[in-house]
Amino acid sequence: MWRPRAARRGSTSHRCAARVRHPGRFGGDEFVAVLSGADERGARATAARMLKRLAPPLNIAGQTVSVGASIGVALYPRHGKDVQSLLAAADRAMYEDKRAHDARAAGASASGR
User: Fold this and answer.
1) How far is it, in rounded angstroms, from Cα 64 to Cα 83?
2) Is pLDDT of 75 > 70?
3) What pLDDT digit, counting tens, does each position of 1-23 carry?
4) How far is CA 12 from CA 3, 24, 29, 42, 106, in A?
5) Which sign, positive or negative, has the C-alpha torsion 76, 34, 102, 56?
6) Exposed, middle or buried: residue 83 (CB in 10 Å: 0-12, 13-18, 19+)?
7) Among candidates 13, 90, 94, which has minimal Cα distance to 54?
8) pTM: predicted TM-score of the whole model, two decimal places
């Protein structure tokens, strides 16, 4: 139920930077955005604005839902000269960010409580 609202919030990347080109869903819960003419500083600033936009919790049917993200940045040609190598570099950077922020998932206890 909350997924469409969270997705709409994430789909407003055009509000985060005028240079975002071709934002889209990459698969599962992964999204990709190509920035035109951005250097590393600009790409990181855009990522920070996207994270800030996702930060406020959603209130859905009286339940507070938080949405977060880890973002990997890869630059052409420094991190790759083709789509595959750029995606791989961004993926590695994203997982480094997840490890750095100690991303965890909590499972239900054996008793179900």
Assistant:
1) 38
2) yes
3) 444 444 555 554 444 544 677 67
4) 15, 11, 16, 18, 29
5) positive
6) exposed
7) 13
8) 0.68
